[in-house]
Design brief:
Layout: H1 26-139, H2 142-148, H3 152-176, H4 183-186
Helix pairs in contact: 1-3
C-alpha cells in the first residue's frame, strides 16, 4: 500500500511563477522528489539521533527511579535505625546517671570510712595517752603533785578538769567499743 506524501514546494525553487494548476515537467518532479528524499533522509537521521537520545534518557530515568526507590528504602531503614539509636542513647544516659550517683556514693563512703579510721586512730592514741596518764595518776597521788606544784590554783584546775576528762574518755571508749579497765579496778 503506497503512502500518500505531501511535498512542500518553495516558490523560490520554481523557475517560473505560473500557478499551481500547471503541470510540472518530469525533471521538475524528479528534482522535487530528490529534494524531498534528501530532506527525508536528514529528518530520518535526526529522528534516529533523537530516538537514541530518548532511549538513553529513558534508561537513565529508569535507573534514577530504581536508585530513588533504593534510596527511599535506605532512608526508611536509616530512620528506624536512628530511632533505635536515640532509644539506646537515652538508655545509656540513664545508666550513666545511675553510675555517676553510685560512683559519687562510693567516693563519699570511702571518705567517711577514711574519716572513721582517722577518728579511731585518734581515739586509740587518746586512749593510750589517757591510760598512761591514768597509770601515772595512780602512781603519783595528788598530794605528791601538790608538794611539787608551784600554786594551789593549778591543783584546783586539775581537780576541776578530772571529771570532764574521765567523761570524755568514757564516751570515746563507748563509741569505739574499746575495753578499758577502770583505774579503781586496778588499784
Amino acid at each position: 500500500m503506497a503512502r500518500s506524501t505531501k511535498v512542500q514546494c518553495d516558490e523560490s525553487d520554481s523557475s517560473d511563477s505560473e500557478s499551481d494548476d500547471e503541470e510540472h515537467s518530469k525533471e521538475d518532479l524528479m528534482d522535487m522528489l530528490e529534494h524531498a528524499h534528501t530532506c527525508f533522509e536528514m529528518k530520518r537521521e535526526e529522528c534516529k539521533e533523537l530516538h537514541k537520545k530518548l532511549k538513553a534518557l529513558e534508561q537513565s530515568f529508569d535507573e534514577l527511579n530504581a536508585t530513588h526507590e533504593g534510596l527511599m528504602e535506605v532512608h526508611e531503614k536509616l530512620g528506624k535505625a536512628h530511632k533505635k539509636l536515640e532509644k539506646a542513647h537515652s538508655s545509656l544516659l540513664e545508666q550513666n546517671k545511675d553510675k555517676i550517683v553510685v560512683t559519687s556514693l562510693r567516693v563519699e563512703k570511702q571518705k567517711l570510712l577514711e574519716g572513721i579510721e582517722e577518728m579511731k586512730t585518734l581515739a586509740r592514741n587518746s586512749h593510750n595517752r589517757a591510760k598512761e596518764v591514768w597509770v601515772l595518776a595512780l602512781e603519783m597521788p595528788l598530794s605528791k603533785i601538790a608538794e611539787e606544784a608551784e600554786s594551789q590554783e593549778y591543783l584546783d584546775a586539775v581537780e576541776k578538769m578530772e571529771p570532764e576528762v574521765e567523761d570524755l574518755a568514757r564516751r570515746i571508749v563507748d563509741n569505739l567499743d574499746i575495753d578499758i579497765s577502770s583505774p579503781d579496778g586496778d588499784a
